[in-house]
Structure formats: C-alpha cells, structure tokens
Amino acid sequence: MGHSLAQFVTANRDELVSRCRAKVAGRSSAATTTAQTDDSVPLFLDPLIAELDGRSQTDAITEGAGAHGRNLREQGFTIGQVVHDYGDVRQSTTDLAVERNAPISTDDFRTLNRCLDNAIAGAVTLFTKGSLTATSGTFAEMERSSRPRPPRSRCCRPAPSEWPAGPAPWSTSACAASTRSWMPTAAGRSPWC
Q1: CB neighbours (10 Å) of residue 175?
Q2: Which of 69, 131, 175, 187 is the most exposed, having the fewest neighbouring CB atoms within 10 Å of its CB?
Q3: How far apart are CA 13 and CA 41, in angstroms?
C-alpha cells in the first residue's frame, strides 16, 4: 500500500518547513518570514504526525495555533496572514506529495484538513480575542469598525450587478426615505438603500 501521510510528513519535515517559509516570503518581507514560520510550522507538524498515527492531538493543535495567532497579532500581522500560514502547510504538503509521487489516502487527507481547520479556528480565536481585549469592544463592534464602507451615491442605488431582473423599479424619493431595505413604489419595489 505504501507509506502513510504521517511517515511522509516525518521524512519531509525540513522540506515542508522550507516550502512554507518560501510561500510566506512570496507574500511578505523577509523579516516576517522568520517570525511567521520559525515556530508555527514545526509546532503544527508534530501534533499532526501524532494525529495521523491515531493519537488524538486536537487540543495540542488548537492551543499551539492559538498561541501562534496571538503572537502574530502582537507583532502586528493581519488575520489574513495567520490564516494563510495554515494554507501554506496544506499546499506545501500536497505539492510535495504530488512531486514525489506519494499517494495520500482519503482518510489521511481528511485528517490533515480537520487538523488544519482546528488550527485555523484556534489561531483566529485567540487573534480576535486579543483584538477584542485591546479595543474593549464586542466582536460585532470590531467587525463594523474594520469593515470597509461602500461609497454612497446620491440615490444610494445598488450597482447594476445587483439590479433585479427587468426594469429598475425604484424612485429617487423611495431611496431617500428608505431604511436600507427594499421598499414598494408605484412601479414595484425599490432597491436596497
């Protein structure tokens, strides 16, 4: 049948870390490469190998990833950079397996994905918890304050791609009086305003 993914990751650990560093470097400055990957990839690979061997490491994966997320937040990284770190592990693992003609069983691939999902959840959770503590707000408040605002038009009509099928059934007066919802007009319904 061949080798398991646990054996593959163990045998190619240094190469996987190197590939993850290269992926981070492709998105960031060289200084961030070391900060992002020196601890996070090895801290993830050890419990991943154990999990693939059938020894549950969910807590270790989540806790290690949470610490990684918190550390990167404290260093000024974005949540996107945190999530991409774990995507790099998935891509590096599957790319190397394809290059080396090392098959990955469905069960091993599911385990890899589940572990990465748990790691991403742990990293994002502690990344955002620290952000909430720092801003003394709720997650919804943080979400609202960080969300880009769309430009307002005079009539606040939706973009053409958001128009309903058929003629545009809105009026300027309906938009001005609206509360950001569809409102009936003589011609039918008005857009989101």
Answers
A1: 19
A2: 187
A3: 9
Q: Looking at the chain, how many residues does it have? A: 193
Q: Is the pTM of this model over 0.85?
A: no
Torsion of CA 65, 69, 70, 72, to 10 degrees: 130
How far is the C-alpha of 91 from the C-alpha of 72, rounded, in Å? 21
pLDDT tens-digit readout, 22-59? 988 888 654 554 555 456 788 899 999 999 999 999 99
User: What is the identity of the amino acid at 89?
Assistant: V
**Token pair for residue 5?**
């993914």
DSSP secondary structure string for all residues of 115-164: HHHHHHHHHHHHHHHHHHHHHTS-HHHHHHHHSPPPPPPSS-PPPGGGPP
Instruction: Please tell me whether residue 185 adopts helix, strand or coil conformation.
Output: strand
* Tokens encoding 153: 């038009």
Is 27:84 a contact under the CB 8 Å cutoff?
yes
